[in-house]
Amino acid sequence: MINIRTDLAVESRELYKKGSGREVPGVEVEVNSENEISITTVKIVDEIGAKIMGKAIGNYITIETPRIIHYDADFHDLLSKTLAKELGKLINLKENETALVVGLGNWNVTPDALGPRVISKLMITRHLKEYMPEQIDEGINPVCAVAPGVLGITGIETAEIIQGIVSKVKPSVIIVIDALASRKMERVVTTIQIGDTGISPGSGVGNKRMAFTKDTMGVPVIAIGVPTVVDAATMANDTIDMMIDNLIEQTKDNKAFYEMLKDIDKNEKYVMIKEILNPYIGDLMVTPKEIDSLIEDMAKVIGNGINIALHPAIDLKDVNRYIQ
């Protein structure tokens, strides 16, 4: 497989399928679409599939819709409900069991601030269930949350901070939210990935930290991620490919030359582009200019989805009364 940075299982599958012309062995795929929302479930079932995909055995659910980038409150509510439904398939939370939600990322850097922003949209109820249980309706579970910052701010591995919290709070499940990297600009802040195998913070941008998994935390870890950046070399590589395809279509006399360019090994071409760009722009990641508003909208969508999934007794009207 071409060594392109992506945190999305659906993109790893696409890259393999494009290069080999067949489905990834050891991987099961299901695709559904409704109300302009596409849901792709990628299930890695054995070590062969895990090695090819570069991901752990487990389930990866990808929700995609281009409409998230256009402000539409009703559609955002629909997307939150879809997220809650898919999240519910991976969370086995019994009544009155505690959920810990962790917002990863650096709140000082907008493309990396999704996790902390989501935390501000949650219904936090653990303290209410403990100190005011008579005033809390049935179907409202104890939920606590934290945005621990990043290693560069705290000097502590984020996973170590959470391990300490887990030892005291003893949650039944951990939900981790983080910003991801995609290989396609059209997937940036239009895609949500849910996985039940945990997450390795920073892996998509080449800054891999200690992982959040059931092995490291002692309880199931559900990861929710949204791609907010694309590797500049990947964008340049895709642009060159599109330009060559266009030249092949338009050229009658010299197609052989452009076909030769198209047949250059993709790994070699990608490495060459990175080597050319590196002296000028370094290891550059690209994000949309509207990233501030996009992150805010996506944070609300994800926050509402988590609220509905963790509190079976409430709906969006209740959430909107609680969260201002």
Automatic annotation (TrEMBL):
Enzyme kind, highest EC tier: hydrolase
Keywords in alphabetical order: Hydrolase, Protease, Zymogen
Signal peptide location: none
Species assigned in the record: Fervidicella metallireducens AeB
Protein name: Germination protease
Single annotated GO MF: metalloendopeptidase activity
Biological classification of the source: Bacteria, Bacillati, Bacillota, Clostridia, Eubacteriales
GO biological process: proteolysis; spore germination
Maturation-removed propeptide residues: 1-7
Enzymatic reactions: Endopeptidase action with P4 Glu or Asp, P1 preferably Glu > Asp, P1' hydrophobic and P2' Ala
UniProt-listed Pfam families: Peptidase_A25
Subunit (UniProt): Homotetramer.
Post-translational modification: Autoproteolytically processed. The inactive tetrameric zymogen termed p46 autoprocesses to a smaller form termed p41, which is active only during spore germination.
UniProt entry tagged with the keyword Hydrolase: yes
Family (UniProt): Belongs to the peptidase A25 family.
Domain of life: Bacteria
EC number: 3.4.24.78
Gene name linked to the record: gpr
SUPFAM superfamilies associated with the record: HybD-like
Annotated function: Initiates the rapid degradation of small, acid-soluble proteins during spore germination.
